Automatic annotation (TrEMBL):
Residues 307-391 form the Histidine biosynthesis HisG C-terminal domain. Signal peptide: none annotated. InterPro entries: ATP-PRT_HisG_long (IPR020621), ATP_PRibTrfase_cat (IPR013820), ATP_PRibTrfase_CS (IPR018198), ATP_PRibTrfase_HisG (IPR001348), HisG_C (IPR013115), N-reg_PII-like_a/b (IPR011322), N-reg_PII/ATP_PRibTrfase_C (IPR015867). This is ATP phosphoribosyltransferase. It holds the Pfam family HisG_C. Keywords: Amino-acid biosynthesis, Glycosyltransferase, Histidine biosynthesis, Transferase. It comes from Camelina sativa. One of its GO terms (molecular function) is glycosyltransferase activity. The keyword ATP-binding does not apply. It catalyses: 1-(5-phospho-beta-D-ribosyl)-ATP + diphosphate = 5-phospho-alpha-D-ribose 1-diphosphate + ATP. The gene is LOC104768100. Residues 126-302 form the ATP phosphoribosyltransferase catalytic domain. It comes from the Eukaryota. Its EC number is 2.4.2.17. Pathway: Amino-acid biosynthesis; L-histidine biosynthesis; L-histidine from 5-phospho-alpha-D-ribose 1-diphosphate: step 1/9.
């Protein structure tokens, strides 16, 4: 690895912990170096530091990910966010909805801060590089699609899915074949596998960008005579170009398949994907502050995502007492709320005296069930129904937090 830093920069090198520190430059601080470090001299206005960054302890795997053995010492927790593409804006929007505001000075600057999390810095990276850097220890947390975690994480146990459903980037990885010619009547993976055409000399040719998951899926499904080719994009063209018989690619709306006369088949889905919060197990167990940070991010995410699908509904109901109103409300299946309805007296002033004739009922209802709930409220005498969006639901305990702790053996 080679980096350039301004002259007169104070460097601290710790030989006990394999790290270089540039205190004045948070951008480069610290520089991971697990092997030899040499300062090769001055050139123009820069010092050039060369480190051979892959030591024996860090072996590259096929995808360039490295298996680091210990965490590099640094002060900040690092969160990787997609630098561009489909997931970039949605990741920032989600954090914003959780009151975590990423301050990026300009879109070409790849480091940013979140004032609400002062011990955390954001690094913008391509999704596949986020996974690679989680594995190499250069990032601690990241937001990426589950497809990328599976493809580039390759089942590495250091990767932990902290939240598997961030509610954006939905798609699935699927095998697709032409809907014409010899494939016209093929509807399932089983039928495809049983076609007499595929032999050792003439295997089923699959074009895919998923060079780890593709072969694994075929092997797991016992499909023997298969070969793979890869391309960076527009894979749907491969069958019509005569390059492949099938493709294995991401599908969301299905439009690209349809427009290229391709179809999905039963049993052909490799995985379902959406954006996820991913962490390095090593970072969570060994890096000071990482667990606390992930707890706070998780709490905010869960509170927001849980509330996102719900409305608060308030209505007035005539009744003799709160229990009687509760009995009536409980007869309706959509009106139970989170724990049960909150019912409180409405104090009216009548002829100079305070009286209670109405009770206010407050419930949370799933957005999908709103109209049904309003109808049920009316059926039991509800009136003046007010509906407002819910922003956060903080539970007593974040369910995924206890899962994470047990996953970490804590
Ligand atoms: N229709 C879709 N096609 C592809 N990816 C999708 C789709 N819908 C959601 N996604 C998600 O978005 C991610 C792709 O994002 P992006 O567009 O930035 O990647 P890319 O441009 O293919 O990446 P790169 O250029 O680094 O190869 C996928 O990994 C997946 O998780
Ligand atoms: O089901 P759909 O909504 O049509 O989306 C699926 C398509 O989108 C992605 O391609 P992308 O737009 O990233 O272009 P690329 O293949 O050239 O990278 C993916 O590789 C599919 O081709
Ligand atoms: Mg495509």
């Amino acid at each position: 690895m080679s980096i350039s830093i301004p002259l007169n920069t104070t460097l601290q090198y710790s030989s006990s912990s394999p790290s270089f520190h540039v205190p004045s430059l948070s951008l480069f601080s610290p520089i991971p170096s697990t092997a030899a470090v040499s300062v090769t001299g001055t050139r123009q206005r820069c010092l050039r530091i060369v480190t051979s960054c892959v030591s024996n302890a860090q072996k590259s795997n096929q995808n360039g990910a490295t298996d680091a053995v210990s965490v590099v010492r640094r002060e900040q927790i690092r969160l990787g966010l997609p630098s561009k593409g489909r997931m970039a804006a949605d990741s920032l929007d989600l954090l914003k909805d959780c009151q975590l505001f990423v301050k990026q000075v300009n879109p070409r600057q790849y480091v940013a801060q979140i004032p609400q999390l002062p011990n955390t810095e954001v690094w913008f990276q391509r999704p596949k590089d986020i996974v690679r850097k989680l594995l190499s220890g250069d990032l601690d947390l990241g937001i990426v699609g589950l497809d990328i975690v599976s493809e580039f994480g390759q089942g590495n146990e250091d990767l932990i899915i902290v939240h598997e459903a961030l509610n954006f980037g939905d798609c699935h990885l699927s095998l697709a074949i032409p809907n014409y010619g010899i494939f016209e009547n093929i509807k399932s993976l089983k039928e495809l596998a049983q076609m007499p055409q595929w032999t050792e000399e003439r295997p089923l040719r699959v074009a895919t960008g998923f060079t780890y998951l593709g072969p694994k899926f075929m092997k797991d499904n016992g499909i023997k005579h298969v070969s793979f080719s890869t391309a960076d994009g527009a894979l749907e063209a491969a069958p019509a170009m005569g390059i492949a018989d099938a493709i294995l690619d991401l599908v969301s709306s299905g439009t690209t398949l349809k427009e290229n006369n391709l179809k999905e088949i039963e049993g052909g889905i490799v995985l379902e994907s959406q954006a996820a919060l991913v962490a390095s197990r090593r970072a969570l167990t060994e890096r000071k502050g990482a667990l606390e940070t992930v707890h706070e991010i998780l709490e905010r995410l869960e509170a927001h995502l849980k509330a996102d699908g719900q409305f608060t509904v308030v209505a007035n109901m005539r009744g003799t007492d709160a229990e009687e109103v509760a009995e009536r409300v409980k007869t309706q299946s959509s009106l139970s709320g989170l724990q049960g309805p909150t019912i409180s007296p409405v104090y009216c002033k009548r002829d100079g005296k305070i009286s209670i004739e109405y009770y206010a009922i407050v419930i949370c209802v799933p957005k999908k069930a709103l109209y049904e709930s309003v109808q049920q409220l009316r059926a039991v005498g509800g009136s003046g129904v007010l509906v407002s969006p819910l922003t956060y639901i903080f539970d007593e305990e974040t369910p995924r937090w206890s899962q994470l702790l047990s996953n970490l053996g804590l």
